[in-house]
TrEMBL record:
NCBIfam families associated with the record: PRK00162.1
Taxonomic source organism: Pseudaeromonas paramecii
Family per record: Belongs to the GlpE family.
UniProt-listed Gene3D superfamilies: Rhodanese-like domain
Gene from which this protein is expressed: glpE
UniProt-listed InterPro entries: GlpE_sulfurtransferase (IPR050229), Rhodanese-like_dom (IPR001763), Rhodanese-like_dom_sf (IPR036873), Thiosulf_sulfurTrfase (IPR023695)
This protein's UniProt keywords: Cytoplasm, Transferase
Protein name stated in the entry: Thiosulfate sulfurtransferase GlpE
Length: 105
């Protein structure tokens, strides 16, 4: 995959339950602490190095932001870093929070 793909929150939820993939949340730390999808990795400038070191390039990565717009740029960045399967979650956390379980830090 040379480009990321866009998926719905329903598709993201299914992928997370059916396969070994990583969900990253690129929202600001305060928003992340108030609520995030279970198991989400808070991806930001400070944590990027750790993520790149821990997550292999063949692991599918789902990128979530507030509404599904900023995640597209972050998803393309991860493709550029070498990740083979990257998905931007349309609707972002705003939609996820209406449909699925939310964890708080």
């Amino acid at each position: 995959m040379s480009q990321f793909q866009r998926i719905s929150t329903e598709q993201a939820h299914t992928l997370l339950q059916q396969s070994h993939c990583r969900l990253v949340d690129i929202r600001d730390p305060a928003s992340f602490a108030q609520g995030h999808a279970p198991g989400a990795f808070p991806l930001n400038q400070e944590s990027l190095g750790r993520f790149l070191a821990e997550v292999s390039f063949d692991t599918p990565v789902l990128v979530m932001c507030y509404h599904g717009h900023s995640s597209q740029g972050a998803a393309q960045y991860l493709v550029g870093q070498g990740y083979e399967q990257v998905y931007s979650v349309d609707g972002g956390f705003a939609d996820w929070g209406l449909r699925f379980e939310v964890e708080r830090s």
